[in-house]
Amino acid sequence: MLKIFLCHSSGDKEDVRRLRTQLLSAGFQPWLDEEDILPGQDWDREIRRAIRASDLVLVCLSRASVTKTGYVQKEIRIVLDEADHQPEGTIYVIPARLENCEVPERLQRWHRVDLFREDGFGRLLRSLALVGGTDVGVRYDGVYATPATARGYTQFLRFYPDGSVLNATTSGSAEQIIKWFNRAHPDLGTGPYEIVGDRLTLATTASYGTIEREGTIHEEGAELHLHTLSRINGHQSDGVWRFVPVQLGVS
Questions:
Q1: Which of 2, 36, 101, 131 could disulfide-pair with 63, CB 3.0 to 4.6 Å?
Q2: Which class does domain 142-245 fall in?
Q3: DSSP E strands: which ranges in 112-198?
């Protein structure tokens, strides 16, 4: 599970809290001072320790933060020092604009992500997939769905960065099912998945049996072309799952 340090100004706390929730729901481990520093701990020491322990740093930027003096500037200096020790070509620092603002000169060597754009979080997830070692990946900021059958049933898949996937066949849209389509639900099919190049294999097991799927990832993670084998009744089929972006819960 990728550890992500959220470098930010205190004035942007609300936006950064929302970003933390998005990252948690996608299966990552974001570090935020107000959540992860315990009462009585030396906050300066804990922040330095968290930066060193992180796989990646998001430097959250706004019009106010880029001109603000204070600890956030010191925090950025610590991040830059740590970046100098990373192997060449490593994705370690990502300037993340929370709104339309200037990127400080010392951060301009890294390509930014604009989180205020509609596709911003999805683009961020593509970088996180690279850091996690997956060149072609599935997406974690929504679900995958087949077209509904004549009876109104749709097959859904939800992937997590830790290598687990959920499966459900039900009526309703992605927006309607997402309230319960998570790992806290005891009756969903769940299991591991593996990606090698553009090949995807997965198997989900519920109380009624196991379903295996294998196939390929297309359109930069927007489509899955999968062959399905039911170990419950032996039925086989081929289908296309298309990505649907939805606001996910934390589980």
A1: 101
A2: mainly beta
A3: 113-114, 142-145, 153-159, 164-171, 189-196
